[in-house]
Amino acid sequence: MGTMTNQTLPWQAETWSQVMQMRERFPHAVLLHGPEGIGKTRFAEQLAQALLCESPLPDGHACGHCLACGWFAQYAHPDYRRVRPESLEDASAVDDAGAETAKAAKAEKGASREIRIEQIRSLANFINVSTHRSGRRVVLLYPAEALNAIAANALLKTLEEPPPATVFLMVSHNIDRLLPTIVSRCRKVPLTMPGAAQALAWLKEQGVGDGESWLAEQGGAPLSALTQSQAGSREAVETLLAHLAKPAAEAALKTADQLQKSPPAEVTAWLQRWLYDVFSVKFSGKIRYYPKHRREIDALAMRADPIKLLAVLKSMNERRAIADHPLSPKLFIEDMLLDYSTVFA
Ligand SMILES: [Zn+2]
């Protein structure tokens, strides 16, 4: 990330200048909300850095060179805290160290996907000591819907009596799942999905080939599309889609064999989206994720047994929950493909 994160995403430039107009009298709590995969967290991190920077640029962005920016880049700024589920901590630890084994070890333990009360409590010390540098401290919390009920109530108490010189930046993909009392204490800043042309142009700049397919599969969300294009190979997706287009129980083993290097969670997600498309075409004629495969999906929708289709969609949700660390990826994928073929038997 590094240098790239200092650039505002083109579809967020206007929001950035609006937020910067509040700079002098910045709200105690800001809630950035909008669809997943469009760069809200990145925006929030840029904002946090900008608020802590000691010589910000005219457009409000952090300079990237001062002492505060140096600390920020290493996540060592004494006036900055990040609160997020343990499961996300794992991901970034792996990014930083490149240590796959650390990820595997943590996954075994089942890292929490919630923001827990201890995490909110531990903010108290941070908030109650005086600031070290600019006189302002920043707490970045995401995704806000990961707050469990107890943690949400503890946070609410803090927001009700805002500590001096403290800014809470919260990010939510799903504002409806937050405590209304928390939402009402925040300045809400909506971030929206960019238009298809803008998203596509941006992906191209990032060096993504076949941006259209990745975007469609991610419901138009450019950052998700970028992540996917880097994580899974196009070849693996095409292998799976070719199998799904011609479901055959006897081919499941071979396809699973070809896909065993792909993260099982990704394969599950691809298959889930494909099934959603079959379902959606069958009942409403609409296709969302794989428009390039319209013909195959139309044919499958005709053949699909509606009750089996619903049952397999449901079982895919259950698989998704355990897909992070199946005992054998190959068996996991094969089993899933066999299940899929029952819809068209
Ligand atoms: Zn700076």
What do these coordinates show?
It is a single chain. The chain is α/β, with parallel strands linked by helices. It has two domains: 4-190, 3-Layer(aba) Sandwich (Rossmann fold); 232-344, Zinc Finger, Delta Prime, domain 3. The chain is 54% helix and 7% strand. The protein is built from 18 helices and five strands. It has helices at 13-20, 40-52, 67-73, 86-97, 100-109, 117-121, 123-128, 149-160, 180-183, 196-205, 211-217, 222-231, 234-245, 252-259, 264-284, 294-303, 306-322, 329-341, and strands at 29-33, 80-83, 137-141, 166-172, 187-190. A five-stranded parallel β-sheet has the order 2-3-4-1-5. β3, α8 (149-160) and β4 (166-172) form a beta-alpha-beta unit. α11 (211-217) packs across α12, α14 runs antiparallel to α18 (329-341) and α15 runs antiparallel to α17. The longest helix is centred in the C-terminal third of the chain and has 21 residues, at 264-284. It is elongated. Residues 91-108 have low confidence and may be disordered. Zinc ion binds at residues 53-55, 62-63, 65-66, 68-69. Zinc ion is lined by residues 53-55, 62-63, 65-66, 68-69.
